[in-house]
Write a structure and sequence with these properties.
The protein has 292 residues and is of the alpha+beta class. 30% of the residues lie in helices and 27% in strands. Helix 3 crosses helix 4.
Length: 292
């Protein structure tokens, strides 16, 4: 048995919702062919890198025959086929597991969402709409929706004379993380980081994945001094957080730049430009810092 799987407890989930039956599909929410739908009508469906697979995903991190989906008419099971990098359901490494509606299945760097129900087409179109606002990997808002929200908040800020600040931060030496620990570990760091930051900001704050390893936080009604304090809180939070992927610790820090609306900076691109410049200064002055 693969040593990394000895500690994995395989759980066959009991389905309490309606049966998956024939009305089930996988939708790519992160990776190649994002938004593509695969109907799960056959009894056995193979996912892998090989062109002979029913669902081909041509990525190095995926084995030639990576995982099998088994549709028995009542449930859909996912079974790992001894893949090099494993098969994950909702971030848990599994050997075999029954899927429930909205489960996330990860093979390599590709993430599928499992959908089932009486009207699978409606569920699919709702998921496609959701992909216009949410980043598939981190499950926080994406850059497109961030830009729309920043324009709305900026307009409200100028109209009512209220404070508005922006934090842009990214992972220090992220390329080294990918090169040293692998891209799957890099994806893990980004997802865990997004989750941790989301838990520690206000409900009215807006967190988004701005770029590859770059994130942004819109802070309504927060002045510059308080925004710098918040950025420092996030920086310290990530520095203390233990990122462990497949039993390997990954030391991780971030650098951040802060900008605030004032008489000089009243347009979205100006606010972003200043935050980016401050982020660059934080990087140049040693990283793991906040500049605002």
């Amino acid at each position: 048995m693969d040593p990394k799987k000895k500690t994995v407890v395989t759980v066959i989930s009991k389905i309490t919702e309606r049966p998956a039956a024939q009305a089930a599909c996988l939708v790519v929410i992160y990776g190649l062919d994002m938004g593509k739908k695969y109907n799960l009508e056959k009894h056995n469906i193979i996912i892998g890198r090989s062109s002979k697979c029913d669902i081909q995903v041509d990525q190095e991190s995926i084995s030639r025959s990576h995982a099998k989906l088994i549709n028995n008419g009542k449930t859909v099971l996912v079974r790992d086929l001894g893949s090099t990098n494993g098969t994950y359901v909702n971030d848990n490494l599994v050997e075999e597991q029954a899927l429930r509606d909205a489960d996330l299945v990860k093979v390599g760097r590709t993430i599928f969402k499992f959908l089932t129900g009486g009207n699978i087409e409606n569920a699919y179109h709702e998921e496609i709409y959701r992909l216009t606002t949410v980043d598939g990997l981190t499950q926080i808002f994406n850059k497109r929706y961030f830009m729309e929200n920043l324009e709305r908040e900026l307009s409200r800020c100028v109209r009512y004379g209220r404070d508005l600040s922006l934090i842009i931060f990214d992972v220090d030496h992220f390329k080294n993380i990918n090169d040293t620990f692998g891209h799957l570990a890099g994806d893990y760091v980004l997802k865990q980081m997004a989750s941790k930051v989301q838990e520690n900001i206000r409900r009215e704050d807006f967190l988004a994945r701005y770029g590859g390893e770059e994130f942004a936080v819109i802070l309504p009604e927060i002045d510059k001094a308080c925004a710098v304090v918040m950025a420092e809180k996030i920086r310290a939070l990530i520095e203390k957080q233990k990122f462990v992927f497949e039993n390997t610790p990954i030391p991780t820090t971030i650098s951040a730049g802060v900008s605030t609306v004032d008489e000089e900076y009243t347009e979205p691109h100006e606010l972003i430009k200043v935050a980016d410049q401050n982020l660059y200064q934080a990087k140049q002055s040693g990283r793991n810092k906040v500049v605002g």
